[in-house]
Amino acid sequence: MARRTYADEGAIRSANTSFSKKEKAIEDQYFNMKDKEKFKHLKEELEKIKQENREIKEELQRQNNNNGQQKS
Fold this sequence. Notes:
It is built from 1 helix and no strands.
C-alpha cells in the first residue's frame, strides 16, 4: 500500500514570489474585514442585550416600589 505524505511543492503559499505575497495580503485584508464585520455585529447584539437587561431591571424596580407603597 502506498503511503501519502504532505508536500508543499507547487503550493502558492510556500512560493515566495511577489504574486504570492500580494495574494496573501489580499486574503488577510478580506479576513480582517470579515472579522471587523463580525465584531461589529457582536457589539450591536451585546448592546441590545444590555438594553433589554436595563429595561427588565427598571420594570422590577417599579414593581418593587409599587409593592412597597401598597403594603404601607
